[in-house]
Amino acid sequence: MANLTTITPIDYLKGVGTQKADVLKKELAIFTIGDLLQYYPFRYIDRTQFHKIKDIHPDMIGAQVLGRLSHIKEVGQKRGKRLVAQFRDETGVIELVWFQSITWLRKGLKEGAAYIIYGKPSSFNGQLSITHPEMELYQSQEKKIGNLTMQPVYSSTEKLKKFSLETRGIQKLQQSALELLYNGLQETMPEHIIADHNLMSHQKAVLAIHFPQSVQDLNAAIQRLKFEELFFIQLRLLHNKQLNTSKYKGHRFDKVGEKFNTFFQERIPFPLTNAQKRVIKEIRLDTNTGAQMNRLVQGDVGSGKTVVALMSMLLAIDNGYQACMMAPTEILAQQHYAGIRELLGEGLASVKLLTGSTGAKERRLIHQELEEGSLDILIGTHALIEDKVKFKNIGFVVIDEQHRFGVEQRAKLWRKNVIPPHMLVMTATPIPRTLAMTMYGDLDISVIDELPAGRKPIKTVHFFENQRLRSFGLMREEIAKGRQIYLVYPLIKESEKMDLLYLEAGLENLQREFPAPKYHISIVHGKMSVKEKDFEMQRFIKGETQIMVATTVIEVGVNVPNASVMIIENSERFGLSQLHQLRGRVGRGAEQSYCILMSSNKLSKEGRTRLETMVRTNDGFEIAEVDLELRGPGDISGTQQSGVLDMKIANLASDQAILTRARQTVIQLFKEDPQLLEHKNQLLKLFLHRQNSGITWDKIS
Ligand code: ADP
Ligand code: MG
Hints:
Elements: H1 18-28, H2 33-37, E1 43-46, E2 63-75, E3 82-89, E4 92-98, H3 102-108, E5 114-119, E6 121-124, E7 127-131, E8 134-137, E9 150-153, H4 158-162, H5 167-181, H6 191-196, H7 202-210, H8 215-247, H9 258-267, H10 274-286, E10 294-299, H11 305-318, E11 322-326, H12 330-344, E12 351-354, H13 360-372, E13 377-380, E14 394-400, H14 407-414, E15 422-427, H15 433-439, E16 444-448, E17 459-464, H16 468-480, E18 484-488, H17 496-513, E19 521-524, H18 530-541, E20 547-550, E21 563-568, H19 576-583, E22 594-599, H20 605-616, H21 620-631, H22 639-642, H23 656-672, H24 682-691
Parallel strand pairs: 4-7, 10-15, 10-16, 11-13, 11-14, 12-13, 14-15, 17-22, 18-20, 18-21, 19-20, 21-22
Antiparallel strand pairs: 1-9, 2-3, 2-5, 3-4, 5-8, 6-7
Helix pairs in contact: 7-8, 8-23, 9-11, 10-11, 20-21
Magnesium ion is lined by residues 305-306, 400, 557.
């Protein structure tokens, strides 16, 4: 085994037999020695801090004790069977308890030996105990490299433990890997970047992350490895972005023509906000470079994305192209169609709607007009993607609410012309900056961070159940003014039956308070057919009903400017971004709007934070940041597919500063040396070469 490298299969490492190799692969996806070295500890125990048993109390999160193990015995029968032992230091004694893997554990424990244990203390009938503590023989400390004050802890699983691959076992493997490989560990980043950012070397950092010699040593290693990880992600993304622009020719919109100008000067019913102007300008510049545009527009609900899309499409038409706009649901497509026709007025451009329910005759006509080129703008749902839909010359595609569409669907739109059309993706789900930089790091991003003037901020209040009468009062007042009201119930798969009961009970109550014929109520929920849902929504949209009781199906994009109150039942059960989306259904007209968050009295700490955040701010970006902090990136929509969760050490919620620095570094790098031709950057060129990356568009989601 003379020439071990990071890509040597894990099977070849000393101490790893076939069986261990198998579990490492299956449980931890460790296939090579390099993978092992990248399996970092998830936390460290400060070995300088021991608790005395007399100071231990059940409120502590964790206690670390140096003491001696005695009186190991099994007690109880069958399911109640457990292993208990005493653990003693010079100040007292505590009980250790195990419920699982008893037989196997018992073999390993040494009566009378000194151990360092760590775990969460608890108290039962006045007896202090620690259940399933982390255990380590005290003497084994000395066998490790150096004298570690910060003791790494690796996460493990039951299966791994069966093969002695808990913290100690994994550490042994790390030790033999490093003994063999340390001198061969190559620097991964160019010297000039390391110097600029004052980073620890790669080699030292890998050693220190597994065997830290001091707290400072460990911190420097963590900083270095986080920076490295984020740097390479950004390098790949920004490199792909560069490739895309050089690879895909784009239609050149080199004039701002008559239709755009007529619309802007004569038809537009309101002054554009500065944010809208800025984004339109960004799009204009982008579509005149000769390269294909891939731009994401983020803008909170009500920020006015539609008119931006429309003006971009007019730009395309002025330059001799067709445009289309795709929405995720039929209702949204209809609303876009109606809204855009109203904005446009007569004569400027021809617009048609194509959805699943478009009749055969109309459909044929649309197909024909598209191919002839007499139809300028097509608005619709997935129906647009079908192969039968062929354009004479499509130059611009708008996709609304992008996260509902899959990769394949977008790719199909790309192929609707020889040169792919420019793509404008619009989302009303604000994504925290750090996530956007990573999930959409290879797209250009525009942000509409300003609401149209004169819009009154929505007033949000949080009511407990016993304040329900106040919410009824507000509802009556608003209906008396001619306004409409949404009332939303959670309907969640796991608790669907209960949820439906709540909904029915709530509805009964509501019908008593708001009886026909004075009041009319629409009901929309996921158990209804598309037709029924549409019918009920249309009644509300037309103003035939004053109250719409719904489950979250109304979440996306529906626009009823006359609706002024959003009441969310059991609001503590909704996620922040969902609450914000729902609230965005109101506040679309000039009138004061309200959002009432109803909740039970029992709130978790997190639930409370969510509701307080909603009451405090209307800013979607601020809310998204809180959401990221509360839940981590794993629960934010779209992250699953984007790979941002596969990070080994960096964390997008807590490492924003490092990420920003890494991205800036890469941007600067490409500015100075776009082709990475300079000698000092060869390492990076090699990295990208090895990545052999596919086309990035496929990764956008
Ligand atoms: P969203 O970004 O949520 O898609 P819309 O495009 O539907 O928002 O716009 C919401 C409402 O605001 C629409 O009624 C639209 O006509 C109006 N609107 C858009 N831009 C402006 C503006 N600059 N000034 C006033 N009203 C505007
Ligand atoms: Mg919209």
